[in-house]
Amino acid sequence: MANTQAGRGLTLAKLLAIAGVFLVFHVISLVVERGRIPDTSQASFGDLSLVIIFEVLSWAAYPILAFCFLVLLETRGPTPTIFWATLGLCVLTELAYDFLRTGTLFDFASQTFAWSFLLCFVIFVAARRAGTGAQSGAGPGTGPGVESGAAAGKIAVVAVIIAALAWAVLGAVGSRFAGFFPGVIVILMFVVFYYLKGRENTMMMSAALIGATFGLAPAFGVIFLHYRAPLLREQPGLPPAAVLLVFPAALAAGTLAVPLLA
To answer: Model confidence at 144, in pLDDT bands (50, 70, 90)?
Structure first.
C-alpha cells in the first residue's frame, strides 16, 4: 500500500505503473518481431519501423526502474533476500524473454535488460562498502592511511562500475539492435541517481542528458521522476513483491499473441 505520508506527487507505485506502461511497448515490439519478421532481410519497412519505434519508446521505463530499484536498496538495504529475489526475477524474465523472441528457453545471443539490475546491486554494495556516494559522510578517522584507504575504495568502485558496463556491452544486456545497449542505460542512470542524491537539478539534468544520447526516450522517462512525491526516498511505500512478476507474465502472454500476427 502506498504511504500517504510521502507527500503529493508520484508515489513509487505510480512510478512503477508508468514504467509498466512503457514496458508494454517492449512486449509489443517483441511480438511484432517474432510474428511478422522471421527474416530481417525480407522484412517490410513498416514492420521494421514498428519494432524499432516500440522498442525505443520502452526505454523511457529504464530511468524510472533504476530509480525505484535504488529506493528499494536504500530503504531495505542490500540484503541477501533482495539479491536472490533480483536474481530469481532475472532468470524468470530471461526465460520468458528468450521464449517470446526465439521460441526457445535459452538463447545466448542477447540477455534481457533485467540483468542490469543485478549489476546495479553489485555496484550499490561496492559503493556502500567503499563509503562513497552522496549519502556517505566523512569517516571518523583522518590521516594518510585513512586517505589512501578511501582512495583505494573509490578506485575499486570505479573498477566495479566499468566492469558492470563492460558486461552490459559484451553480454548484450537488453540489446536487440547493433550498437544499442539498454543495460548500459540502466546502469548509468542508477549511478547518477546514487551519487547525485541531494542535488536534484544536477541529478535530473545529468540523467536527462544521458537519456538524450540513447534515442531521447530515456530522457522522457526522467521527466516523471521530477514529479515524484517529495519524501519518496524517505517514505517510499513499497508495493507488494508480487508486482515484480507482472513483467515476465506479460512476456509469457506475448508469446500467446505471436500466432495472431503470423
So the answer is: low
d(CA 97, CA 91): 10
Task: Using alpha carbons, select from 112, 254, 134 the residue that is nearest to residue 186.
Answer: 112
Residues in the chain: 262
Chain-centroid distance of CA 180 in Å reads 15
Q: Are 174 and 116 in contact (CB under 8 A)?
A: yes
Residue 158: how many other CB atoms lie within 10 Å: 13
* Distance linking the first and last C-alpha atoms of the chain: 41
Distance CA 242, CA 245 (A): 6
Q: What Rg, from alpha-carbon coordinates, does the chain have?
A: 19
* Bridge partner list, 10: 228
C-alpha distances in angstroms, 158 versus 27, 152, 191? 34, 10, 11
pLDDT tens digits, one per residue of 158-189 = 999 999 999 999 988 888 877 788 899 999 99
